[in-house]
Amino acid sequence: xxxxxxxxxxxxxxxxxxxxxxxxxxxxxxxxxxxxxxxxxxxxxxxxxxxxxxxxxxxxxxxxxxxxxxxxxxxxxxxxxxxxxxxxxxxxxxxxxxxxxxxxxxxxxxxxxxxxxxxxxxxxxxxxxxxxxxxxxxxxxxxxxxxxxxxxxxxxxxxxxxxxxxxxxxxxxxxxxxxxxxxxxxxxxxxxxxxxxxxxxxxxxxxxxxxxxxxxxxxxxxxxxxxxxxxxxxxxxxxxxxxxxxxxxxxxxxxxxxxxxxxxxxxxxxxxxxxxxxxxxxxxxxxxxxxxxxxxxxxxxxxxxxxxxxxxxxxxxxxxxxxxxxxxxxxxxxxxxxxxxxxxxxxxxxxxxxxxxxxxxxxxxxxxxxxxxxx
Length: 375
Ligand SMILES: Cc1ncc(COP(=O)(O)O)c(C=O)c1O
Hints:
- The protein has 375 residues and is α/β, with parallel strands linked by helices.
- It has 11 helices and 14 strands.
- 35% of the residues lie in helices and 18% in strands.
- Helix 7 links the parallel strand 7 (169-175) and strand 8.
- It binds pyridoxal-5'-phosphate (PLP).
- The site of pyridoxal-5'-phosphate (PLP) has 14 residues, from helix 4.
């Protein structure tokens, strides 16, 4: 049987990984400034993460959400503490798109409306609802059309208020930092303004933190930089350091009832323990501080390179806008310098999404490689 060929591949097969490094079968070492798409948050095969999952596997790996599962309640307590959202509620699922689907559904349940405001260049996933609010016609089929979405320009409050005046909007969905678009930040004023408008018009503010959450930007969630609270927050990628897990945080205004949301695999014992161990490592190793420190260092050093036009983003979610062929640069970084970085919708932009325990020495390796390539 052949694989359904939807992913363009680098001809590299990592067979082992440790910390910020991947190794192929010949022992060639690759430095990971991509984190497998922002997923590797606490480093590959972190010993504490491996031990917690192995210990759990020796006891119980899975049972359905019909029995008591204290791995979930332990995770909720830790997540509340680290995210400063202690009074919110946690619903667990298995991916980012599934988190977005559940958030859209909750916004609609809460308001009895179905229209959603999203923003230009947004990416929220590939299931039907998530695709509806994703601004990319290339990946949509005719089937993906049940809810109404209005795409508005980022960082412009006026059209948002105009749209809300019609009274038919259930929610506003926005990425903490737009990732797939090329690391584009909503301004602090815009996020504060959205919060005020959501309150004024009684609509649900959904912060999609699937890529920007779990400490990557130096704050637990990127939107916390603006000093606002969301009504619903979607999470996934960095949650499980590679173990598939997603979730939503719901404000106390949302009331649960049996059967309102549900999933077979969400919150299973292994996934919950994987996520708890990620939170323990973030806390124990002060990784949010490290994300900020290394992010500032990278930004400062990289912005001195002539052919780099700007650096966008915060912490370890950075976009390098190059004056030239970013795609070729990304390719040379892998083939010549053995460093993985991420691409995005714009070929001039490289995305940096390394593990949050990356060191200055590893940052220097990347900086020197980029300097050499752009010289
Ligand atoms: C902001 C954002 N939301 C949602 C998703 C979808 O997540 P998943 O691929 O886990 O379904 C992504 C994936 O890149 C994302 O970046």
